[in-house]
Design brief:
By secondary structure, the protein is an alpha+beta fold. The protein folds into four domains: 91 residues, conserved putative lor/sdh protein from methanococcus maripaludis s2 fold (Beta Barrel); 89 residues, Beta Barrel (Elongation Factor Tu (Ef-tu), domain 3), CATH 2.40.30.170; 69 residues, OB fold (Dihydrolipoamide Acetyltransferase, E2P) (Beta Barrel), CATH 2.40.50.100; 128 residues, Helix Hairpins (Orthogonal Bundle). It is built from eight helices and 24 strands. The strands form six sheets. The chain has a six-stranded antiparallel barrel with strand order 4-13-16-15-14-17. A hairpin with a 6-residue loop joins β14 and β15. It is rod-shaped and about 170 Å long.
């Protein structure tokens, strides 16, 4: 092999490696380009609208003022629907939304013993009467406990009867001991008399043996009498013992009676009956579902939730800028979407002690007079709060009404009587439906619904605006 051949062989691998390296470098640019394109796509998705040119607009703020006389005079020109109020009541103060709920609260029908549901006889929305069977628990164990307690009570009763029969036996033994004592006392007297007579005879009249026998007979009668006399206290002590044992048994019998009644109560509680006339609001039980008293869940033992359809109330979230006009006993007109053509009269019964920080509202409870049975809890209602009737009759506006806030929008910003363009916090255009009153003040219309204090509306022209368009405010003082 020559030197040239060795040189060619040694130089061939680097050439091959150089070729592969060049080939790899030819595709290396795809990675940064792909990352750049992905980054640009993400930027476009997140900030695409902000990169587009904005539509220059002029805005005007929604003016917030105290209602005062301007609102009172405007109510005279309001639509007939807005002037509607119950007879004998003052003018409409404000409106708010809320929900129907049971008055004063929901009734929870719970089981009073732990167990597993056997059968359920009520369904959601079903009307039930007081005493109706709602559900049953599996009662096999409770039935056995009651039978065992009842048998123990019966057994002890018979034991007491057998025990008390000992009173007659002991009484008879005491009577026999007393008669025996009397007989022995007679025999003792006779023995003493005999011994005394023999002792008085002259010596030699009788033998000395007869005298000794008479004395010994007397001593024997004394001993027998003493023995008979000791039997009486023993028998009386036995009688007292029997009496004490009877009292202990009677006390134990009372305990067994209590245990029997407790077992019967536990058996009876496996049948859950309704405590009131009402409608099932929510069902928490089903066959095979366990109901437990000692669980952390507040509904672990609840079978059904009930409410009385004749006693309903509405919880109304009143905005804080209107809450100054609230008062207990205030007349309220309520309308539900379920019965849009029917107006319910209500009365404010109480006002919540704490405001809602997130909603910026204060909750009021309104009792519904003569509610319709078709109304259900959590249905939305619209409430109209009226001033006292004497305020209208005297021609004066209530102080609460004069202190509430009213919103006004420039008339030139209106697209129509029901719509206006609003600038969102993200500087986008939003077409908003609103409800206006006929009341006007310095080129502004009173807003009843649809706008909030602090918002800005877009002034004409509106031709270029679309829903969600990005806008740029060009007000001189903005």
């Amino acid at each position: 092999m020559s030197l040239d051949d060795l040189t060619k062989k040694s130089s061939s691998p680097p050439l091959s490696g150089t070729l592969h390296t060049g080939r790899r470098r030819s595709f290396a640019w795809l990675l940064p380009v792909g990352l750049s394109l992905g980054f640009l796509i993400i930027l476009g998705l997140l900030f695409g609208k902000r990169l587009l040119p904005a539509i220059t607009v002029e805005t005007a703020p929604v003016i917030t003022i105290r209602a005062g006389e301007a609102i009172s005079s405007g109510e005279q020109n309001a639509s007939p629907a807005s002037r509607t109020k119950p007879p004998g009541k003052g003018p409409l103060l404000f409106q708010a939304s809320g929900w129907i709920e049971p008055d004063p609260y929901t009734v929870y029908l719970s089981t009073l013993v732990n167990g597993v549901v056997d059968e359920v006889y009520a369904l959601e929305g079903q009307a039930i009467k007081k005493g109706d069977l709602v559900a049953t628990l599996i009662d096999d164990e409770a039935l056995l406990d009651f039978q065992a307690a009842q048998q123990k009570h019966l057994s002890l009763e018979k034991t007491i009867v057998a025990h008390c029969s000992g009173f007659e036996i002991v009484s008879a033994e005491i009577s026999a001991a007393q008669r025996k004592t009397e007989a022995l006392e007679t025999l003792l007297a006779e023995a003493r008399d005999t011994s005394s007579r023999l002792a008085k005879l002259s010596k030699g009249a009788i033998s000395q043996q007869q005298v000794v026998q008479a004395r010994l007979a007397t001593e024997r009668q004394i001993a027998m009498l003493a023995e008979a006399q000791t039997a009486i206290p023993r028998l009386k002590a036995r009688f007292t013992q029997l009496k004490t044992e009877e009292e202990a048994m009677i006390a134990n019998l009372d305990e067994l009676a209590t245990a029997r009644e407790r077992a019967k109560l536990a058996l009876d509680r496996t049948k859950i009956t309704s405590s009131m006339d009402g409608i099932v609001l929510q069902l928490h039980a089903a066959p095979g579902k366990k109901r437990m008293l000692d669980m952390d869940s507040p509904t672990s033992a609840v079978i059904v939730e009930l409410y009385d359809p004749k006693h309903l109330q509405a919880r109304i979230d009143v905005p804080l800028n209107e809450a100054a006009a609230l008062s207990a006993g205030q007349t309220v007109a309520l309308v539900s979407d379920l019965l849009p053509n029917k107006t319910f009269t209500g009365t404010v019964t109480r006002i919540s002690g704490q405001a809602d920080l997130q909603r910026n509202t204060l909750q009021a409870k309104v009792e519904i007079q003569n509610p319709d049975e078709r109304l259900r809890p959590d249905m939305l209602v619209r409430a109209k709060f009226f001033a006292p009737g004497n305020a209208q009759s005297s021609g004066k506006t209530p102080a609460a009404s004069s202190s509430r806030l009213a919103l006004y929008v420039p008339e030139e910003a209106l697209v129509s009587d029901t719509q206006v363009w609003v600038v969102t916090p993200d500087l986008n255009a939003e077409r908003r439906s609103i409800k206006l009153s006929r009341d006007t003040k310095d080129g502004h219309r009173l807003v009843l619904e649809g706008l909030r204090s602090g918002e800005s509306v877009i002034l004409p022209p509106h031709a270029k605006l679309e829903e969600g368009s990005r806008v740029e405010i060009t007000n001189p003082n903005h």
